[in-house]
Amino acid sequence: MKVKTFTFQPYTLRTGILEATKNLLLQLYSSQELDENQKSENEALLEILDNHLIDVNAYARCKALQGWTSLCEAEMLPVKLLLDILEKAVERTLDKSSYVRKDALKFLKTCLEHNPFSGNLDKEKIGKQLEAATAKLIKLQGNAGVADFSVEEVWETIGKRVQIIVHKALAQDLADKENEPATEKVAEENKEESDKENKSEEDKYEKHAEEMEKELQEGLLKAGNLLLDEKLEEAVQLALELTKKMAKNEENAKDDNEDLQADLMCTLLKAALTAVKPETADIELPKDVQVEIKKKKETIQFLKNCLQISTLIGVASENVRMLLATSQTTDLVEAIDFIASAQQFGLLSEEDSALKLLEFLHSKDLALKKAVTDACKKIYLSSIDPEYNVEITFNGYVEAMKKISSMVHNARPCFSKSIALLVQTWVNHGSINNECLFALWEMVESKNKSECVPALHTLSIALAGKPNLVQEKIATLDKIGFGSRGEGCFELAKWAAAVLCHATPKITAETLTNPFRIPFTDDIFTHISNLLIKGVFKLGDKDYCGLAGYFVKAIFKTCLKPLSLIEEILRKMHEEVRKYNPADYPENKNNSTDAEEEREDVPLTQLATQETDAPPTQPTDTPPLVESISHVVLLRYVYVIGLVVEELHTFIYEDIMAEIRRQKTLVELERNRQRMRRSRANTTASSGQDDDEDGSLFDIKKLMHSSSKYFINNTEEENLDALLRLCDNEVLFKDNLLGKLLTFVQDCFTSRHCHHHGLRIVAIQTFGKYMQLSPNFCSKNLLKFVTILAKSKDSRVKIACIHTLGDLLKKFPNQCEPYSPFVYDCLKESDSNVRFEALVVISKLILSDMIRVKFQISSLARCLTDTDMRCQDLARYFFATLAKKGNILYNLVLDMISQLSIEYSESNQTSFEEIMNEILPHIDKDKQVVALVEKLSSRFKDKAEEVECYNLALCISKLPVTAKSVHAFKEALMESLPHYADKLKYPTVKSKFDEIVQMVRKQMKAEGKDECEKWQEVLDSCAKGKDSAKLAIAGLAEAVQVEPKEKRKAKAPRGRRKARKDSSSDDDGEAAVAAPKTPRAPRSQRKKVVDSDDDDSIIQTAARHKRKPAAKTPATRKQAILEEDEEEIQSPVKQRRVRGKKIVESD
């Protein structure tokens, strides 16, 4: 039955035979009761599948792997072949064909899920079980008087651990010797004296040789028994003593090489195992002992097979990690699925397997995102998935949620967004259902802090978009998060506030009901206010800034009158900050920071502490009130002000605009209902909220309701302009609390009394948030802001200014773009952190199309050779991404080459080469490459210095050349030969052009290689002198026949057609020859047509050409009027046309 399939040349025939072989194995030879002929046929068919795993054709290899996968799924794969096939499949994971890699990963995954050995293939656990089983077998055989074991197998089991213990024992022995130097010297002196005396007594040693040999054999036997009993440390100590005794009787008694001593001790211990094994003949044992020994041997063989499978899958896991770096979607999907299966069998940890996959959640490929979601679901939620577990209890939900909450809460910051996206995807797909959310709420209500905080953190992600579930648990949040437990743990209160932020649904134009809001007099806001105010002075708790952010956000999202509540909180906080006395908070002494120890007096102006009627820009007559306040307390206070301004910006431009759209929708519905009964003038907006907003920062709601017609009848742009004017007139320059605090914030980073860098940074960030409220206020204060960026010597202050200016460029690009060069200047700073942060901001703005990069591209290119590796990596990513955005990089590369060539003309030539190596390969379009060759070649004629010419030749050599563009590339260079012929006298330029010729020759076929040789001869001639260069250029033009590019023919107008053949042509069939057309004269040489005195001349001319007279636009009319006025001034006779009549007037 054996078929020689390798003799069949067509791969389609081989794949068909492999498919038939698989079907025969599955259908005819699936029975366990096979006779000898059937067994031989079965082995022959299996051999066919085995041989074609290394077939030369990829499709045949795929068919073979698919056959083995089907056999493994049917559990028909023989165990004796499993390890061999598995090893070959691991090699196929690195196959050059993606189809083969895909099928190989499928086979490995199937082998894991249907392996006949164990459900847990953890290598460490299996190794320990194998050692224990081997020790039990040896002990059982020793008790029976039979040592039927292999020394090599036993040493393979315990050898690594013995080597580690040996090195530790030698290191400890060496340390003991160093601690007793005097004793060692005395011992050496005694040894020398004893050696002299013992020379005469050498005969005594010979007599005692037999006794020493017996002592050595007894020690070896004892050490071997200790090894078999798993007493490795005692065996090593005994071997160390035997080694010392052996060393005393040798001439070279002392050997300082630790490795040699370790090898000697390991050899001695291995010999001890040999000494334990008796050389007697086989002994008949009782049947029960024989059965037990047989079971132990089968267990050991079973564990060895498990260990081999675990080792092979470990090698496959390393290959899979390499496949995760590919861009092939099929490879990525199978690799992700394999990682999930490997984790289930204990080959990978949960954290390692999940973190490797999280980066693919942000991919645009839906299949890849689905694969990652399903794989992570298999890792974390398999215990509550009906596909893997039929009986699911509430404790199972709790355990699964504990695992999820631990992953969410303990994740590193770089993975937090990816994990949040994963949890939200699970919630949207129903993998985390209501039972899971109920289990999380049960964990929240527990008194265990280690369960409550992670559960709240997970709920803050899972409940996004589920406001009804949050509204039901507001009382629980108030009790647990904002009560006494929240005062003792700011982290608990922070995540409770994060959950509360989801209580209000997002307002849209289709929302007909009034949004959910909690009255600001509710107890929950009372508790939040107390925590927010008192937390400013608890300097030991580091979670206050995060808590304040979520508290302010929760107030603006859920409070019915957020502005009134925020004003009340800021006023109370301001009073408490003024009254702050460190003696009232003794717990802060133990938690004082370095910044607190170096604190200085900070001025608090009277304008920021007292209510006055004068606007903040006007100076007051009373002197400023200066108080000594903790910098950390003041920093937290300014930070809260910044949070309020930031959330106020969101509240105005998002929430208020959404409310206006909702009101428009309600008005339209009301008009449709009452169109016949009520006029449009009496239509008003129906809002179910209270219009009384007394005490707020500014009555935005009252303003909107009082002028509802104004907002509702206006367009979106007009409403946005109205809100901008509102920010200018109400928030920043009117007599309100935020306007007063603005001056105080400016003092915190401009005053001479404030030297605390943390306070200055927070004040700068807060001032930047003020500037984002209004473009007018931003443009007025930009110069002050940029001055701080340019003159500050503190790198942390510079970084804060860079990020704030980046936010302003994104918000108001027109006002802030003239100041963008100040950010580019930060790329030249000596501090690497400043350069990196500036590069981060600039790259984000450019890639998001917020600013245009022009001549500053050279500053970004210098970052490719920065000393900081972070800047280099980010610059590479920036240029790789910029190259994908149309022709931006192509349009900028010439200016960049010119600037860098001048800069690196005298020094740092290697830096210029490194930059070009990174940037020029990104220009991969054939037309752009040829165009760059022409432009760079034309610049040789303007260059005189050797370095500049070398840089141009270097840039040409770094351009990517493909088989399609090589002919155009060669022709462009050969046509441009007159430009660089005289520059080939420089050896460096000549060497680069030689490299270019060799590069072109590799890409050319046999026909074009002759032209390359002639081109090389011409270059060699040009390098000798002018005369030979002229002759070589002329010879090249004749031999190669380089023709200039033809100009693109002008396209004929669409309305015109080709002239038809004359119908009166001759009968002999010859085509009529058209008369040659005279070329049209240029516009400047054409005769001007003088208008006739006839009024209808324009109409007649238009009728003659069958065209209508061109309609005059307002701009042309204005130009005509101006020209007519000039004619009136210059000419004594002026003509006017009135309704088709020409009137001539003379002076």
Automatic annotation (TrEMBL):
Keywords: Cell cycle, Cell division, DNA condensation, Mitosis, Nucleus
UniProt cross-references to InterPro entries, sorted A to Z: ARM-like, ARM-type_fold, CND1/NCAPD3, Cnd1_C
Keyword Nucleotide-binding: no
GO molecular function (one): histone binding
The Condensin complex subunit 1 C-terminal domain, residue ranges: 797-956
GO cellular component: condensed chromosome, centromeric region; condensin complex; nucleus
Top-rank taxon, per record: Eukaryota
The protein, known as: Condensin complex subunit 1 C-terminal domain-containing protein
Organism for this UniProt entry: Cloeon dipterum
Taxonomy of the source species: Eukaryota, Metazoa, Ecdysozoa, Arthropoda, Hexapoda
